[in-house]
Design brief:
The protein is mainly alpha-helical and 139 residues long. The protein is built from five helices and two strands, in the order H-E-E-H-H-H-H. The chain has two domains: 1-36, no CATH class; 66-135, no CATH class.
Length: 139
């Protein structure tokens, strides 16, 4: 990368430079404002919860450990067995498998429909609240 050698080069590189002439007729450098944004690559870094990267064109995702979903899914299966009659049990188990498939393929939109169907069958049970939190669905 070439180093800027003139005020024009600095201005062309994204700096807004104000030059002031003081009372003695001498040039003084005023405010220097940086308008260009250059960010290093942060791909592959691990951050804790509640981290928000602010910049242009940022896409943030939260990866949750698989065992959290597996535990919540196991609780969901227990809730289905304990809280449904025989007629609804088979349907709920089928829908739960669709929800799991959507989660494992990382398709939030696809997970929304089976999630809402299970909520209608089971009501607001803790396993669905956990799954909603893990999948980023509203509960």
């Amino acid at each position: 990368m070439n180093q800027p050698t003139s005020l024009k080069d600095l201005s062309d590189s994204g700096l807004d430079i104000n030059i002031i002439i003081n009372n003695n007729g001498q040039l003084q450098l005023g405010d220097v404002l940086m308008h260009s944004k250059k960010t290093g690559d942060i791909t592959g870094n691990t951050f804790g919860d509640n981290v928000a990267i602010q910049s242009d064109n940022v896409v943030q995702t939260k990866t949750v450990k698989s065992n959290e979903f597996d535990n919540a899914f196991a609780e969901l299966i227990k809730d289905i067995h304990n809280n449904t009659n025989d007629a609804n049990k088979e349907t709920a188990l089928f829908i739960a498998e669709q929800l799991k498939e959507a989660y494992t393929s990382n398709q939030k939109e696809k997970a929304s429909k089976p999630f809402n169907l299970l909520r209608k069958i089971l009501g607001d049970v803790g396993s669905l609240a956990s799954i909603a939190s893990i999948c980023g669905l509203s509960f």
